[in-house]
Design brief:
Blueprint: H1 2-7, E1 14-18, H2 22-33, E2 38-43, H3 46-54, E3 58-61, H4 67-75, E4 80-85, H5 90-99, E5 100-108, H6 120-125, E6 129-132, H7 138-150, H8 152-158, E7 159-164, H9 171-176, E8 184-188
Parallel strand pairs: 1-2, 1-4, 2-3, 4-5, 5-6, 7-8
Amino acid sequence: MRALHQAGFKALDSTVICGAGPIGTLTGILLKHCGASRIIVSDIDEARLALCREFGFETVNIREKSVIEYVNETTGGDGVDIVFECSGAESSALDATKLCKIGGTICMTGVHKVPHAMNLQDINFKEQKVVGTRVYTMVEFGQAVEYAKVINADLEKIVSHVVPIEESDKVFAMIADPKINTAKVLVDCQAK
């Protein structure tokens, strides 16, 4: 909810989400239910992109095709209204200004562990807005709870594993293991 509010999202806005992890996928689900005209998701993980396609999102595997090329081809070179950078990757931060239309918004939603460069010339000449997200307000938390009631079936699809609290020490190893296809891992604190 916070990312959509910070970006000034309106129904029928076109969007790109860089990063198909849990944050990017949840952002896409909310955008879909709030009326986005297009949701394009880019990532390097084919399993995560396959899940995004189940939700009806357009996907680009950036190991196979440039997301900038795809967006330029499919928008006539105009770009999209809002780019949600959810990956935390420097390459996506650099791509964001090329994906975003003149007067559009770039919402930095992913966590960047180190400072990254952005194309300030694009931001200036294309009059783009760059906004960050950090936490939610109490109002947004309440809105998220209400949305969760409506989109519960979609939310359940992104939970790949539920682990009892007694086994929570194994969660990070699961996430790091490429043989285990994790989307979102939940720790069940109430399991008996």
